[in-house]
Each structure stands twice: as C-alpha cells, then as structure tokens.
Amino acid sequence: MKFLLAIFISKIVLTFSECPKHMVSNECIDLTYHYKIDNKVCASKCPSKFSKKCVLSICAGCNLPTSPKLFELEFSKSQNLSETFIASSIDAADKWMNPSGVSYILSQTAPLPTIDRGFYFAQTSSITSNQHYIPSLYFTANAWIFPYNHGNILTVNLNSQNYIEWRYDFDENGWDTLIFIIIAQNSNDDNENALKITSPPVDSVWKYYSIQINQVDCSTVYLSIYSEGTPSNMLVDNLFTLQEANFPSGNYLWTIGKSGSGSFQGFLYWIEARNDLTSAFWDLGKESSCYDNKYSDDCIACDDSCQKWPWCIRSTDCSICYATDCLTCDGYSAGMCTKCKTGILPYCCDWLADSCKSTWDSSGCATGKVLIDGICLYATPDGSSDYSVPIISVDFTTDFAGVYDPLITSTSASSYNYWNSPESTDPLPAKMRGLYFIPDTYLVAPINLCHTFSVLMWVYPISGTYVWFTGNKILIHSNGAIDVTFERSNGTSISASASLSINTHQWNCISYSVQYFYNGISTITPYIDALPEHPTTIDDCVFRPHSGGSLYLGSSDFYGFISYFQLWQKTIPSFMDGMNYFNCEPGSSLDCLWNCDYDHYFDGSSCEKCLVSCKNGCVRADSCGLCENDLCLKCSSFSTNSCILCAANASGSPCECNKGYTQTPGKAECLACYKFCSDCTGLLYYQCTSCISGYYYLSKANVCLSDCPLGYTKSTNECLLKEDLVFDISLSSISGIIYDSANSIPVITGSLDKFYPNYEDDDPISAYLRGFYFDGKSSVMRLPEYKTYVTPKLNIGPIFMISIWLNIENENSSLFSKTDISNNYSTIYAIILSSSKPALQLLIKDSVVSIACQAPLNSYKWSHLAFLVKLDGNGNTVVMCYINTNPDPISTAGFGYFQDINLNAATLIGAQQISQNIGNFFQGFLYEIKIFNTDYDIKLLAATSCLENCDVCHVKGSCLPNCKIFEYWEGPEYDQCSKCNSKCKGCKDSRESCSVCYSSLCETCIDYSENGCITCKSNASLMNNTCICDTDCDNSAHNETTNSTDPTFFVTLLVFKNNSLSLNFSDPLQNSLKANIIKIAIEDNPDFAWELEQINTTYYSIPMNIKDKIKQDAIVNATFFDLSQVRSIGNETLNSSTVSSKLNKYDPSPDNLVVAAIASKATAVVQSAVIGSIALSFLNPNPSSLWGLMNCLQILSYLSLSGIPFSDKMSQFLSNLNSYNLFPNFFEHAIDEKDGNKAYAQALKYGYNTDQILLNQGDDFSIIIASMISLPFIIYLADCSYRLVGKRFKNLFKNLKYSFYIRFWLQCYLELGAAAAVGLVKLKSDNAIQIVNIVICFGVFSLLIASPIAFFYFTYKNRYKIQRNQRNFALLYDSFFYEFQTEKGFIYSLYYFVFFIRRLLYTVNLVFLCEYPKTQVFINIICSLMSIFYLIFYRPFKDRILQISNLISEIMIGVIMCATSFYLFEVSSSIISGIENAIIFISMIIMGAQFFSSVSIFLRTIYQIIRHKIHRYRNDKFSIHPLQESKVVLS
Fold first, then answer.
1. CA-CA distance, 79 to 1078, in Å (whole number)?
2. What is the separation, in whole angstroms, between the first and last Cα of the chain?
3. How far is residue 704 from each of residues 470, 658, 660, 877, measured CA to CA in Å?
4. What is the pTM of this model?
5. What's residue 179's pLDDT?
6. CB of 47 within 8 A of CB of 247?
7. 1.10.3660.10, 2.60.40.3550, 3.50.50.60, 2.60.40.1220: which CATH number matches 1047-1146?
8. 39, 78, 873, 1455: most buried, per Cβ within 10 A?
9. Would you say 1293 and 1371 are in contact if contact means Cβ atoms under 8 Å apart?
10. Bigger pLDDT: 893 or 1513?
11. Mean pLDDT value of segment 1141-1160
12. Which residues lie closer than 8 Å to 583 by C-beta, 6 or more apart?
C-alpha cells in the first residue's frame, strides 16, 4: 500500500561572517549590518513584525514582535468559486491570487475551493501573496495538509532565489518524506553548502506539520520538524553551526503551490507563517480523507459524466450547487445560486412557499398554506407541538367504549362491544390484550398530521396486511414495515419504506419516528422495544399530508390485538416510557399483557383454550363470561368494580353473594350457606364467617359451635380467644383436691376428697418429685361434673394441644378420658396406651376415630407425650403425636371437627368410664398435664438436651428422678434412689414413720415444704404452718425430723470436653453465689486455676486452666462451705454440700511441644525466604518479588486475628508468618503495657497483649523515626566532594525522599491498619497514654480509609503522565507504577488501588466482625476472588514471571481462605488435622513461588548481561536510530 507522506523542504540562503566581524563587545559595528537582533546577530534590516529599537533617532536594534504572525489562510472558510483571491485573516490587504488572475472555477492554475477539505491544489495550481514579508531568525510555518503527489507547497523567493522552499518529495531510499534543506554561505570562503534533514516516512492522512528555524546564538541554528505540534512527536531535530545568520532585505515573493507545474497535489485546510517559535497543535476534527473528484466520508467517486473541475457534491446529479433546484451557482453555499429550475433566487424556494432563505427554509407560504418550522404545510397540524404531550394516548385495556379520544369505533361512537348495540365493524375488547381486530373492524379519527411525527403501539399481530394507515400517505404493515409517501420541493411524490422484524402471535412494542432535517433530508426510523433499527433517509423531500385526512387502526384483512397507542406531532427523544407502560414482561403474570390468541385465556402460567361455546373469547376456564367477577352478567370493563348486572342472590360492585349465600366455585350463582352459618365463604361447615343465632363463631377454625370452649369468651355471636393455656395441673402437692392453675378446675383424687395420710382405695399415691402414682387397679382422678363439683368444666375446642409428663408401668391403659354418659357411654376423647403405644381417640361427627403414635413409650422411664389436634383447611381434623419432642407425621382423623360440648360426661385421669363402671386403669406416675387452645411450641414443654443422661427433661435441663414408688430419690444423680421402709406406701426419705411431710410432727400437709403443715401429731402445736413440740412432747419425733435430710432442691456439676465446669441448680438462688464459699478439688491434686462466672440465677460457669496431666475419669468435687448462703428463692436447702463429676483426659505437654515446634519452624522458614529474597533483590533490577512475598505473608499471618476457631497449632503457625521484621521497637522502653487496656481475646491469641498501637506495631514507627534521623546525614553526604560518595548518597536521598516512604506505606498498610483497629475496639481513656493511643489509632485508620480514595483520584488525574512514563513524574511516584503495564491504559495502573481496597476490607473484617466467623470467611473468599479476577483478566505486571508468581500466590491464598471454613463446622479431629497440614503445605508453596520468581529474575538478568557483552564484542560499529538527534558542523 502506498504511504501518503508529507515533505517539508526548507531551503534557506543566509549570509554569514565570523562573530567578531560584525559584533564587538556585544554591539554591531558594521554600517551595513547594524541592527542587533536579540543580542545574538547583526542584520541589515529588521524582519517583518519586528520593530526598530531607536535612541535619539539612531536605530541600532530590532525589538521582538508582540504579534509575530505574518499571515494565516483559512481555506476551509472559502467556498465561493467566483473569487479571484483569498485574503489573510490577519490582514485583509494581504491577498493571495493565482497567476492568471481569474476565478477558481475557470482555470486549474488556481487552487479549487472544496465543500469540506479546504483548497485542492492540482500540480499546476498556485497562489501568491501581494505582501513582501521578511522572515526572521526565529521562523515557524504551521499547516494542516493532506498531500498525495510530489511538488512544492510553499516557497519564499527574492531576486529569483528561493530562500524558503517547502516540497513533498522522495528521500534517498525512495520513501515519501519531509526534507528541510539550508543553503548556507560561509563568509570566509563564500562557498555555499547545502544542509538537509529528512523526516521518517509519515502516514498519508490529514496531519498538522510545523517547521522551525531557531538561531540559538551567533554560531548555532536549530532546524526542527514537528508532527502534531508536540516535542514528544518531533520527527527530526538537526543542529547546524552558523555564524550571524540573517535574511537580506528586499521584496520577498511568497507562493503556495507552484505556477506552471511542480505544485504538490492534495488539499490544504489551513496554513500560517510566524516570525517566532510557536508550533502549538490544534485539533482539526474529523475531516474527509478523500482524493479529488470524490465526495462524502465514504469517498464516493463522482460519475464519469460529471465535470472534473469542480467536481460533484452528491450522488443525485453532477451539480456543485447546494440546492437541488439550482441550475448554476457561484459556490457551494445555500445562497450562491445564480439560476433556479423553479422558485426564487438565490435559494430556489419550495413550491408552496412565496418567499424563503433556501429551498427548505421558507419564510412565507402561498395562500391557504401554513408555515411550520420553515416548511409550508397544507393544513395546521392537530394537537400540541410539544413532543412530551402526545395528541393521542390510549390504553385499550381499560373500559369498553365507543370513543377512545379522538378515535371512535367504526361508524358510530354510541355503539360498541359489549352489550351496547355493537356494529359488525366494531373491534372486540379482550382482557389484558386491548382491542381485537378482525377484517373490516377498525377505529378511526380525523386528523391533520405534522411533517414530523412519532407513533408507538403495542401490537399482537396474527395475520393480515395493514395495522394502521392514513389514506395513502402512511401504511404500517402487520410485519412491522412502514410505508410513507413524501413530497419533493416541486410537488411530486416519492415513497419510502423502513422495516422491522417482528413476530406474529406475540406482543411487540413498535414505534416509528418520521423526522425532517432543515437541509431537506427526511428520515424514517423504526424502533422495536424502544431500540432503533436501521433508518431510511430520503433527500430533498418532506412528509406533507393533505388536509382533512383520517387515521385508521385496523384494515380489511388484519387479525390481531392493539393494546396501547400513542401519537406525537414531533419526534421524541425516547420511547422508553411507552415501552415500560405495562411495567412487566408480557405473559409473565395475570396483570401483564396476555400472550394469548382471542379464543384463549391466561391462567397465570400459560394460555389455555376457552370453551368451544365461547364466541367472544373468555377470561376463565369454566365459563364464557367476560366480566372479571364471575357473578357479574354485564360489565363496562374487565376490571373488578365495573359490573352493571349481577347474578341472582348477588349485589354490589363488585358483585358479591348476599348475606347467607355463597358462590358455587366455577359457577355464576349464589347458594345458601351451611345450616349454622349466617355468612360464609363456601358451602361446608368449616367455611363460616359468622353464625346464626344460638351459635358462636370460632375464627381459628371457621366453624359455628353451640357453646364456646374453655379459654374463650363470648362476644355477641363469636368466641374470642382469651388464653392459650386452659388446663395446667402439676401433681406435686399433697392434697385430695388439686386445682389447675389456668382456670381453677378442681381435680378430685379417688371417690372422695380425702387423701394422705388416709388414702382411699382409689386414690393415687403422692410421690415426692414424681407427681402421683397410679396403681393400675383402682387409682383415678375426676374432673367436674362429679358430685358437688360442677364448674368450671373442661370443654376443649376443635383445635388443642395436650402435654403429659408420665412414667408408665403397664402397657394398656387410659391416661385421660371423657365419656358421654347420656349417650351409651360413648367416648368423646381419650388418651390411651395400647401395647405401650399412645393413641388419641376423638369423637368426630358421629364416630370415634383413633390415631396411634408410631413409637411406644419406654416403661419405667420418664417420657413426655403430646398430641396436637387441628383442622387442615379442607375440613379434615388432623392429629400429630410427639414423643419426647419427636413428631410423628400428620395423621388425618377424618372429615369434620371435634366438639367437646357441655353434656353429662365423666372426665377421668388414670382410667376410663366403661358403661357404668370405671376400667382401663393406668399404672405409673403422672407428673404434669397441660392443655392449650393453640399449636404450642413443643420446645417450650420439654427438651432432649439435658444436664444429666435422661431421655427427656424440663426445658431448664433438669431430669425427673427415675425412682419407683417403693423408692425415694437420694441424689445427686437423677437415677440415684434408695428403698423406702417396707411398711411405707410411698415415701419421701428413709423415715420409719413413712411421713412425706417436711416435719415428722406433721400429721397432714399440703406440700413437701417446711411451711406446708396442716395438722400436727399429738403433743405438737401448729404455728405458721409449722408443727412445734409441746412441753410434754415426745422429742423422738422431732429428733427424727432434725436428723433426717431434706433436700428440697439440688445442684448438678457438669464437665465439658475441655474440662471446664458448670453448676446447674434446679431452682433459682436467693443470692448470687460467691467463689469464697466453694472449693474445687481434683483427684491427684494437679496444678490448676479456676474462676466463677454467673450466667443466670440457676447456671454458673467455671472456666478451668489446668497445667498438669489429668487422667481419664479423674474425680472433681465442688464443696459448699456454708449451705446457709446457698438457698433457693423458695428458701429451700441444698440437698448436699458436695457434688462430684468425672474429668476428661488431658495432657498439655504434647500439644505445647507441637505448637512450639510449629512456631519455630514457621519463623525459620519465613526469615530464610525473606532474607534470600532481599539478597536477590539487591542483585535484581526489579525487587517486586520481595514485595509480593511480604504481602502474601501479611495476609496469611493476620488470619489468626479473626474469630475462626483455629487450633493453637494453627494460630501459632499463622501468627509467626509475620516474623520477618527484625527492626527494634523503640517504644517498648518508654511505654508500660499496664498503662493501656488488655487486648480482646482474639488479639491476645495473635500476640497483642495490649491495645497500644505503639507497642503492637512500634517497629514500623521506629523505622520512620530512624529514617528521619538519618535524613540530615544523607543530605550532608550527598554534597560530599568525593564524587563516588556524593553520587551514591544523592541517589539514596532521592529514594528516601520519595520511593522509600511510598514503599513503606504499601508494606506497612495492613500491619498498621490491624494494630489501629485493635486499638479502637474498646476506646477506654482512663489516662493520657490511652488518650494518645486513641488519637494515633484514629489517625492511622483515617489514613487507611483515605489511601484507596486518594490513590484512585491521583492515578486518574495523572493517567496520561503515567501512560507516557514522563521522567519527572516517574522520579517521584514510580514506586506505585514501575511494576505494571501502565502504557496499556488506566486500569493497568490500579493494582495498588485493588491492593488497598482488599486490605481495608480485610482489616475491618478481621477486627470488627470477630463475633461472626462465618461472615469473616465469606468476606475473605470474596476479597481473594476480587484479586484473582483482576490478575487474570488484566495481567497488570510487566514481567511475566511476576505475573505468574503473584497469580499462583493469590489462588493459593484463596484456597486457604476456603479451607478455613472447615473450622466452623463439627468435623472430626482427623479432618481438621488434614486441613491444617494442607494449609501449612500451601503456605510453603506460596513462599516458594515468590522466592522462585526472585531466583528466575536474577538468572534472567545474568543471562541478559552476558548476552549484551557478547553482542557488543561482536559489533564494531554503533548505528544511530533514525529519530536520534544528529549534529552537523559547517567547515
């Protein structure tokens, strides 16, 4: 391919003499050369624009010009071909004309003005100035030029000698180039010597060139050629030694091109000459780079039939005139026409205009025509010209109507679909589809359109031709194409089309803009989904519809939907509002446009076929009704509140069934509710919403009951829930009648209300801490109605939950039952045991249903049993069984609901009424029964995480004593029991009297407490519910009481895996427990320490710090010295002064040795790797691998500061990875650790004993102080007269001044940030040291946050300097950028921005989210992925070795971050051990990768040095680069 090159030949003939010849003592002494210029040379005359320097009319010098520009020719602004000259923009008197003196259009001896490229010069073209400028010693010529054939560009001639000559020519190698030649004359021998500089080849495009002559002193001249005006783009800069150069006086002739032949061929856009050294570049912009006889940016050649001088400017004809109706013209501009085909000169007006500025810029119109925006129209456009206000905007998905202003349905607006006397030509409304058009149905509106308009519609085409048309002017096809008929300026018509690709049977948002431009060009731009498609452009025309036209939607063959239509009388900037009008994707929901044909409906997920009988479509599956409300027979729209006529037994808007009626699903009819419902949502019993008189509505079940269950209150005809718990009985008292705590329902033991100590045969037996014991033969308890106990009755609702604590001893029995005595003793409900499996029997409707649990209860063990009964929403009663909180699957009891009505019934505990007798007796213990009116949380009733080894326990964790009736609980374990006296029928302790009262003086008691006595034995008196001996009382009874142990509450000592202890009291304590009344003792007396921490009133934690070995199952005892200080809130005494437990095996020695070994090895490996990298970095030109190693070690090291539960082994390994800083901490000798606050737990684990930043990271501050102290010495040594020392320390000072502190902040960023964050955790300021610490920490952390922001701003602001690697900038800030490929762009300079952000997030995550280890792991992984992404996708490092090593390291760090997640879950110790070994191994890989990169760079450097030495040895000659400066000395 041929290069289009620019050549600049500057030939200067100068006269010289030796410096002393004309100048002595800096003064010009020669009478001929007496004008001193710039104290450098002597000249015979001042150059142009210079002024004479005169003193008393004696002129002996020249002043430098204030306005040095000689001329400036702006060829791009001259488009008149009839002119004979072009004037300089500096001086109108400076006229440049061709030698023939004729106009441009007549002769090729003149250059030719063009419409867009300045002047075109043929090889015979030239222009010459009528001014005779004298060039100066400081000379510049600047030009925008596009040459493509050789020849002269500029010459300056005096007396037939060219002093300045600018040519486009070949160089010695045959390349098109710029050449600058000087013909210099030496005053000593009068010989002329030709001096020449040549530029490298240049691109043949528009380019800005500059040349300069610069007289530096009396013997030196610089000649320079610039491209694009900046020194960095300098092409050639040659130095010549001249002596007193000057231009002789005379009338210089300035010529552009060359007369006759020999001119360059090409375009000249602009040129200037100046008597100074200004070559500032200005941007030309986008100009055509076409050769002659071509037009437009695409460089289209004019037709062969067209003239070549001047050439055409468009494709339609050969004319050069702006107006197409212009026959002849003087130039390219609009007002240069000299003869028109039609219209008025000089613009050739539109045929409807009576005056104009140009064809399409009318200023007046013919009679009856309307002027709009310079266009004459047939009629005034309707509506608003404001493009933001459409003249039509219609949503067809709204009400049925005959008028959609201004559109009407076919011929009459008063008749339309539906139910409004529709005509056959009326379109059909379709739900969420707007209007459905079939052939010959349409909407119409009379309208006068503007010459520019926009239209948008949502259309669902099925088939047919036209969707929208206005006469024969506009046709929008169903396939999305549009045809528009335009009108030319002479009144003839021309049609144009634009296409869209849209789909049938699918919604499309299509829109079109017809736009007119003022230069006579119109465009049709189609849009699909508000995005423009390829526009159609039509020249010399305008859309101009005739008056009285009409707009039609629909046509003779169109099938489809239109849901939305908008029309504007202007082009609008965006159709996005119309695109988003429905605010959702069609077919995505019921509220969006339906993607369904007319005979389908949308069910929320897909289009379904309507019934065959539906002639007008449908909106649902089961009917042809078109109204949204299926009870509506006629409506005005598809919306809910638009009904005109409702079905029978329905009214309102929307239509609703009248009170007492409900709609049959899928049918437009209202039927009567269930018999007890006064209102309902369905026909079934559970669909009531209110009840008839005499019944009460239960909202939780939607049923009507004849009475409200217990726990509800009656309010008019409704049962309102008052309380969840309706029955709560604890069998822990000693009484024949127990009242439940919820509703005071009396529960009677046996047949009468007598009880202990005179048990009846059918009484259960009171069992201390175990409730009541039922013997399985006759023991029973009764609820009202029984004898005189009538109210309150236990009536359970249809939704309930029953909870029972029990310990069974027989397999088949009844626990709790209610029997209808008046109805054949039928069961209402019963909880029974069948082969130890619990079952619930319920009366539902007229039959009893039994639901059995899947698992049996364990005999002779405490169990928790619960049944949940509720309705499932379909009218079915369902039951769920819980055994020890474990649920069975839900079982269906049957259709109907359970109702426990007030009737003559027997409610029994421990047995069941069978006919007239009681049977099915329960044997075992019952401790507690609760009944709820709600689905109560089972976890609040029982627990399986117990303080002792029982199957189930109270939610506090205490187990019920597992002792038989002939035993009593001795403790402390829940199953430690002793036998009662053989004569006892149950007992509390070992007393022979078998008394269960606190005191043996008590005859009867209400409970087991000290103050529970009711009556006393003989010779004893009752005082404050306590029995006291009379004077003649037998003290044996008293002695029996005092000698007996009476533990009314107990404590359990628990041991955890790490051998920490806890004390768990069965009841809350009156006062907080003190450590000084407790002694902790361990078998074999190992060395240990312990603390007492209160968690709550029943739970105390005892952290243990054991320093010696502990054998497996070693006994640990907790002894209470003073039991009087350990009493419950019920003033109960602790059952024992000593509790014991067994410890786990513990051997601290092996772990400690492993941890120490790991820490030592980690330190050794890290220090070896760092020292090795430092050593290699001194030998390498690039120490980046050292920085990479230190950065990786920091990231890994600070992991141990997080809340992740690392083992001691892992924590020690990680924290010792940061052991490479060996610089001493000056502040350790000045600050006492005690003055600060103790660091929090994780910081202590990492190695921070305090929150003082100057102690934790003082070595970094010490480095800064040391560098500041050394700075004056380095400055002093930098000025040392001994060159070697001075040079070394001067370089050291430069690095210390800039690079050192930048690199220091980069490497200490994470360290100082972590230490500052630790110092901000507690924020205590009790003394001056703490206040100073807080201030320093805030300052450091502020710098931490500011660094990424400042770095990003700094990098963006200086991005061009960074990309060009400017020397001065690089000297200051290259530490940030020297490692990276910054020349590729801004993003490659941001490595340290990612670096800062990653470490800032890491610091905040490690310290402030310590309590959320899962969140910490997640953020750590995200940060690693961010760095990996940046390294993979941008590859910022210049050095491939560094890129690979850093990428490997980041990937390995990411793997470690993922591996730490295993610590958050319960996994085996072997897995954790494997994970830790993997982390250590991967850490070694990271250090190895970074160290290997140092070694690789070192070896590569050695190889390059050796190779360079060999190369120099083999090459004898040194070649100069073509762009390097060359120096020529005149002899």
1. 111
2. 42
3. 67, 19, 14, 15
4. 0.41
5. 66
6. yes
7. 2.60.40.1220
8. 78
9. no
10. 893
11. 62
12. none
C-alpha neighbours within 13 Å on the C-beta side of residue 528: 16
The region of weakest confidence among 79-93, 790-804, 1245-1259, 1334-1348 is 1245-1259
Query: CA-CA distance, 1190 to 1173, in Å (whole number)?
Result: 10
How much is the pLDDT for 1047? 46
Interatomic CA distance for residues 1453 and 1456, integer angstroms = 5
The DSSP letter of residue 1498 is H
Confidence of residue 1071 (pLDDT cuts 50, 70, 90): confident
Residue 116 tokens, joined = 């867009």
Residue 808 · residue 863 · CB < 8 Å? yes
Contact 602, 590 (CB under 8 A): yes
Beta strands 521-528 and 508-516, pairing class: antiparallel
CB 543 within 8 A of CB 486: yes
Whether the Cβ atoms of residue 567 and residue 475 lie closer than 8 Å to each other: no
Dihedral of CA atoms 792, 797, 802, 808 in degrees, nearest 10, equals 70
User: Secondary structure of the chain: what % helix, strand, coil (to 5)?
Assistant: 20, 30, 45
Q: Which two tokens stand for residue 466?
A: 């036209």
Instruction: Provide DSSP, 1324-1379.
Output: --SSHHHHHHHHHHHHHHHHHHHHHHHHHHHHHHTHHHHHHT-HHHHHHHHHHHTT
What H or E segment, with its residue span, contains residue 164? strand 161-170
Two structure tokens written together for 1319: 């110092």
Task: Place 817 in a pLDDT band, splitting at 50, 70 and 90.
Answer: very high
Topology of domain 68-276, CATH: Jelly Rolls (2.60.120)
Q: Does the 723-968 domain belong in CATH 2.60.120.200? A: yes
Rounded distance, CA 339 to CA 346, Å? 8
Task: Output the CA–CA distances (angstroms, integers) from residue 493 to 185, 604, 997, in the order listed.
Answer: 74, 50, 119
DSSP state of 1049: B
Give the pLDDT score at 512: 94
Q: Where are the domains of the chain?
A: 68-276, 293-317, 321-376, 378-590, 596-624, 625-688, 723-968, 997-1046, 1047-1146
Query: Is pLDDT above 50 for 1525?
Result: no
Under a CB-based contact definition with an 8 Å cutoff, are residues 817 and 850 in contact?
Answer: no
- 10 Å CB burial of residue 581 (0-12, 13-18, 19+) is middle
- For residue 888, name the pLDDT band (cuts at 50, 70, 90): very high
Tell me the pLDDT tens digit for each residue of 216-258: 776 677 777 777 755 434 444 444 444 445 667 788 899 999 8
Phi, psi of 1102 (to 5 degrees): -125, 90
Given this model, what pLDDT does residue 17 score? 34
Closest residue by Cα to residue 1417 from 1203, 1201, 1195? 1203
Q: Same topology for domains 68-276 and 378-590, yes or no?
A: yes
Which residues are CB-neighbours of 861 under 8 A, at least 6 positions away? 807, 950, 951, 962
Give yes or no for a contact between 742 and 723, defined as CB atoms under 8 angstroms apart.
yes
For residue range 892-914, list pLDDT tens digits in order.
Answer: 999 999 988 767 899 999 999 99
> CA–CA separation, 1416 vs 1435, rounded Å?
28
Q: Which of 1486, 1302, 1483 is nearest to 1395 (CA)?
A: 1302
Q: Rounded distance, CA 1345 to CA 1343, Å? A: 5
Contacts of 648 (CB under 8 A, 6+ apart): 669, 670
Residue 724: phi, psi to the nearest 5?
Answer: -70, -50
Topology of domain 378-590, CATH: Jelly Rolls (2.60.120)
Give the mean model confidence (pLDDT) for residues 960-976.
Answer: 87
